[in-house]
């Protein structure tokens, strides 16, 4: 996946046939972070913690449902993809790139959570962990390409 | 990890707590981003720039603080604004919380 053209509003990427297939497979995994996973407060010193947490969970769930719709709409839109001899050209707007970053990071973080949130390198791949590891790395790969396109080189680990 | 000491509390002494909720407009809430090993540094920088409108240098400073010190206090705001920012950061799947500044 590489950026081949930009305008004020649009980004055009070239994807190989294999990348095109992976792009669809990865995006179809969304969402991966479990519902109600993100606490609003670590120490709980906020008024009406339960109520506020519930509202936050609902807002994130709505956001994910909306993102899911947008992902499906993007994947189903034939106008986004122009076939070439070596793959395809994918067009997305700059605002779509922004929510796609959210989507891809959800897949990456959700897969990491599914792996048991390892602090360092994964201790060993097996039949059970390989799909999650694959999803985490693939989402990260596409995320890096989008980040480079919207302004900066991708580097690991914060 | 060291054991946790049990505080001694004298009988019949009511502890004065600071649990009184602060006003929604009181800028007494911190928005904190916590380190996790899965997010790309560049991604975290990008999210800080988008959510807070910060220049790249400031966003990188806080990203490095998260990376090196385990957390960074991003802003001190009213409860409503802190909630808003924490929600925005969580939309990007960053490990962000809001905490009362005491």
Give an account of the 3D structure.
In chain A, α1 packs across α4. With 158 residues, chain A is α+β, with helices and mostly antiparallel strands. Chain A contains four helices and four strands. Chain B has one domain: Ribosomal protein L7/L12, C-terminal domain/Adaptor protein ClpS (Ribosomal Protein L30, Chain: A, 2-Layer Sandwich), CATH 3.30.1390.10. Chain B is built from three helices and three strands, in the order βααβαβ. Chain B has a three-stranded antiparallel sheet. In chain B, α1 (41-52) crosses α2. The two termini of chain B are 25 Å apart. The chains are: A alpha+beta (158), B alpha+beta (102). The A-B interface holds A 33, 38-43, 45-48, 52, 56, 59-60, 63, 98, 101-102, 105-106, 108-110, 112, 117-120, 136, 140, 143-144, 147, 150-158 and B 19, 21-22, 29, 32, 34-46, 50, 56, 63, 66-67, 79, 83, 86-87, 90-93, 95, 97-100, 102.
Whole-number average pLDDT of chain B? 83
The CATH topology annotation of chain B reads as: Ribosomal Protein L30, Chain: A
Estimate the helix proportion of chain A, in percent: 40-55%
Number of helices of chain A: 4
Structural class of chain B: alpha+beta
Q: Please identify the structural class of chain A as seen in this structure.
A: alpha+beta
Structural domain tally of chain A: 1
**Which two protein chains have the largest interface (Cβ within 8 Å of the partner's Cβ), and how many residues from each?**
A-B, 43 and 37 residues
Run of helices and strands of chain B: EHHEHE
User: Biggest sheet of chain A: strands, sense, closure?
Assistant: 4 strands, antiparallel
- Whole-number total of structural domains of chain B: 1
How many strands appear in the DSSP assignment of chain A?
Answer: 4
The shape of chain A, in one word, is: globular
Rg on CA atoms of chain A, Å:
17 Å
Strand order of the largest sheet of chain A: 1-2-4-3
From the alpha carbons, calculate the radius of gyration of chain B and give it in angstroms: 17 Å
Segments of chain B where pLDDT lies below 50 for 5+ residues?
1-10, 13-19
What is the 3D form of chain B?
Answer: globular
CATH class of chain B: Alpha Beta
